[in-house]
Write a structure and sequence with these properties.
The chain is an alpha/beta fold. The protein is built from nine helices and ten strands. It folds into two domains: 2-115 and 299-316, 2-Layer Sandwich (Nucleotidyltransferase, domain 5); 124-294, ATPase, nucleotide binding domain (Nucleotidyltransferase, domain 5), CATH 3.30.420.
């Protein structure tokens, strides 16, 4: 069973091939044109996808030593994401499926992140919990099987990754701010400033308050003194901010694990690359006699390997999509 996966939800053009549940190729073309703008520009992203998708798919097939005629199905991200970017991938996948007369599988990008755990030999048992943390989403999922999950909690406003990037911009750090904050935090004092931790009932989270708190903290310093202050304490501010965000992520996950008596936890999405989050979750899970599962770093970011794997599981379960399906930028797992 051979499935081609296509991912174009944001600014990475990616294609991958899964054969009988095993990843055999994965290609990602990352767009560099957004750095000077401090964030992804949707129009630039969709145009870049148009240029890259044909050669990226061709390279993925070549690395798998396959041709298009060897494909049994095509899986594609249909949402959530940027509408222009999604449409490039969905249109390409639909046209290819029609031309080859093979099934199309519509994959939720977040289901793809859940499936990234299945790209490794060591996998969590069912049911398990999964924390999805990225620039656009922060959710706690209870995963019942490779193609069935339920939402337990989510952010009510900003995603954790979005907060990282926006605070990075406030601090004058290069885009994306998340990795730079993580790097600087290793040299800083996490107790330097006590940023507020938002606590909500249940398993929901909120990250807009801490972002505003950082802004207020900086605004309380005169413009004349701010440059010197940041030069001396930017690593401490990064560490203090990061510790607060990690606290707000770990607390509801710990509560969910206790309430549902689950000991296996997955951590997926771009922010799963954050070293402090990995350490804190590992310590928390170990204290509950559980296990933490994190995909290899290359599959933490957006990629088509996870889409191909999610599509493979859906396809083998008999789930396909009509060629009339279209992109849905607001698609969720709720």
């Amino acid at each position: 069973m051979t499935v081609l996966g296509i991912e174009t939800s944001c600014d990475d053009t990616a294609a991958a091939v899964v054969v009988d549940g095993t990843l055999v190729s994965s290609v990602v073309s990352t767009q560099l044109e957004h750095a000077e703008w401090g964030g992804v520009v949707p129009e630039l992203a969709s145009r870049a996808h148009e240029r890259a998708i044909v050669p990226v798919v061709a390279k993925a097939l070549a690395e798998a030593n396959l041709s298009r005629s060897d494909l049994d199905a095509i899986a594609v991200t249909v949402g959530p994401g940027l509408i222009g970017s999604l449409l490039v991938g969905v249109s390409f996948a639909k046209a290819t499926a029609l031309a080859l007369d093979i099934p199309l599988v519509a994959v939720n990008h977040l289901d793809g992140h859940l499936a990234s755990l299945y790209l490794s030999e060591d996998q969590p048992a069912f049911p398990h919990l999964n924390l999805i943390v990225s620039g656009g989403h922060t959710q706690i999922m209870k995963v019942h099987s490779s193609h069935e999950s339920a939402l337990l909690g989510k952010t009510r406003d900003d995603a954790a990754g979005e907060a990282f990037d926006k605070v990075g911009k406030l601090l004058g750090l290069p885009y994306p701010g998340g990795p730079e904050i993580d790097r600087r935090s290793t040299r800083g004092d996490s107790t330097f400033h006590a940023f507020p931790r938002t606590r909500l009932k249940g398993y929901d989270m909120s990250f807009s308050g801490i972002k505003t708190s950082v802004l207020y903290h900086l605004n309380a310093i005169s413009e004349d003194a701010r440059e010197d202050y940041l030069r001396e304490h930017i690593d401490d501010l990064c560490a203090s901010f990061q510790e607060a965000v990690v606290d707000m992520l770990v607390a509801p996950v710990k509560k969910a694990m206790k309430d549902h008596r689950i000991r296996d936890l997955g951590l997926v999405g771009g922010v799963s690359a954050n070293s402090r989050l990995r350490t804190r979750l590992s310590e928390m899970v170990s204290g509950l006699n559980g296990r933490l599962f994190v995909p290899p770093m290359v599959y933490c970011m957006d990629n088509a390997a996870m889409i191909a794997m999610a599509g493979y599981h859906q396809f083998t379960s008999g789930v396909t999509a009509p060629l009339t399906i279209t992109a849905d930028p607001s698609l969720s797992l709720a």
